[in-house]
Amino acid sequence: MYLYDADGNQYLDGSGGAAVSCLGHGHPGVIAAIKAQLDRLAYAHTAFFTNEPQERLAGDLADRFGPRDSRVYFLSGGSEANETALKLVRQYWVAHGQAGKGIIISRNQSYHGNTLGALSLSGNPQRRELYGPLLKNWPKTEPCYEYRHRQRDESSEGYALRSADSLEQLITEHGAENIAAFFAETVVGATLGAVPAVPGYFRRIREICDQHDILLVLDEVMSGSGRTGSYFAFEQEGVVPDIVTIAKGLAGGYQPLGAAIVRGFVHDGIVDASGAFSHGHTYVGHATACAAGLAVSDIVRREGPGGEGCRVRSRGCSLRSGRHLPITPMWGMSGAGGILLVSNWCKTVRRKNRPLRMWDCRKRSGASRWRRVSCVTRPAAPPMAGMVLTSCWRHHTYVATATSMSWCRRSRIHSTRFHSDGVVSSLAQD
User: Fold this and answer.
1) Among the residues of 281-370, which ranges form H helices?
2) In the chain, which segments carry CATH 3.40.640.10?
3) What was the pLDDT predicted at 411?
4) Bridge partners for 22 per DSSP
5) Class of the 44-303 domain?
6) So what's the pLDDT on residue 403?
7) Are the C-beta atoms of 230 and 193 separated by less than 8 Å?
């Protein structure tokens, strides 16, 4: 869990980089799998060949996804995975003679990637501002964010339905015949700070999409791959999307790897009409990357949500109980969580849940303390800043850290060390 720069300084990588290193750094099992694959085959272009790690990992992910006829398309990261999902949606509707379905609905305060299509989906104004003229201005609904948007006299169940029904209002406004898909993060990551939806929200979203013949695409680039206590976060929501995207924890940072997983009817509709999916990248199904993903998947299965990782969930529940931290509220799913830091919680409640202050977690050069800044718009400052709870299955730890990787980049990382035992719990604060 530690990084060391060229001067020997030690950094606790509490957030696992950009919520990537789910097994920590230097795991011997993953490294051995990568070395063994390099000895056999490093790379062969999948336009002409397939490879064993690709096939085995695809089978593993399809089994986890649920529907028997699922298909998997491997990429090099989350942005590519969401771009691929966009193209799958488009080609599916063209194959069905509904080329007019060209609108994609997503949510405000969301983030789906930095490529132009994925950024068009994203509801993050800071990331979009510079590239605005290049982006699609597709409609966006509000996120399911109970802390901010549930009314005082409204139950959680009532809010879940009201929040989901805002999607139906947009469908009515733009016409279901023009809408291809609805994209959402199952647990909103970088822009809200590990905020899950209220129970019942995604079940209602699934009903609305089915009613209006719209594909449901869930982005689990950050929340998938075992981070939330189940391999896919949507398993806890009682729904199955038509397409799901994953990355980050899929290979745990040991290789660049992402995937788009589709239900059989999406795949078959495209292949039957066109013969093949019209898409591709140089490193699709990269043999070494898939070998790393397969090794990480096996370790997560043994030590993660169903095994020793139960200790991580227990630690997370303990932290969210508020017994150890004088701050509220806390939210999340198992190994993905967030904390909103306020100066006076009781006063905040009386002021209609408007947080008074939060920590600016970007450490200034030479500064010895964290700087406090006013915040009345949202609980998360720049992406990946703020208090983020992340977990490491291998070390059975749950780390609350206020470290932003924006300042870590100033140091050249020289090496990592793998610690086989021990429990670390660290809270960086004033």
Assistant:
1) 287-303, 310-320, 345-350
2) 44-303
3) 52
4) none
5) alpha beta
6) 30
7) no
